[in-house]
Amino acid sequence: AVLRMLVLDNRAVRKTFKRLVLPPRVDMSVGPEVGDSLRAKLVRLMTSANSQLKTMAADFLFVICNQNAGRLVKHVGYGHAAGFLTDSGIMGMPVPVQDSDSSGGEEERSVPATEDVAAGPDV
């Protein structure tokens, strides 16, 4: 949490950590979690069974990406970033698109991106 706050509050520190933790990927044939680099270790932590650990690792990477979801995806991959972005409310639930040639006559319900589908609508 201390590193997160330090990186969040100080641009120079954020840039230094970004350079150290997220150097440009040269070999795109291997995943970002492969290897012994700090980035690889943090990306592996993003899939940890320990929810606090995976949230802290993902949040730290997100902050050094200047809280930009596109940059996070670029550096860690969509699969690794999707869970964190969804859990954080940054990436909402996809809204179903009604097909214009749907047959069946039933009107499909479009779910707003902010509605918690598991809990259902507020009553």
Please sum up the structure shown.
The protein has 123 residues and is mainly α.
Walk me through the structure.
- It is built from six helices and no strands.
- With 123 residues, the protein is mainly alpha-helical.
- It has helices spanning 2-9, 11-21, 38-45, 51-64, 69-76, 78-87.
- The longest helix is centred in the middle third of the chain and has 14 residues, at 51-64.
- Residues 102-121 have low confidence and may be disordered.
Kindly report how far apart the N and C termini lie: 37 Å
Strand segment tally: 0
Largest sheet geometry? none
Q: Strand share of the residues?
A: under 5%
- Overall, the morphology is globular
Helix segment count?
Answer: 6
Quaternary state of this entry equals single chain
Q: What's the helix-strand series?
A: HHHHHH
Provide the fold topology.
Blueprint: H1 2-9, H2 11-21, H3 38-45, H4 51-64, H5 69-76, H6 78-87
Helix pairs in contact: 1-2, 1-4, 5-6
Features:
123 residues, disordered C terminus, 6 helices, mainly alpha
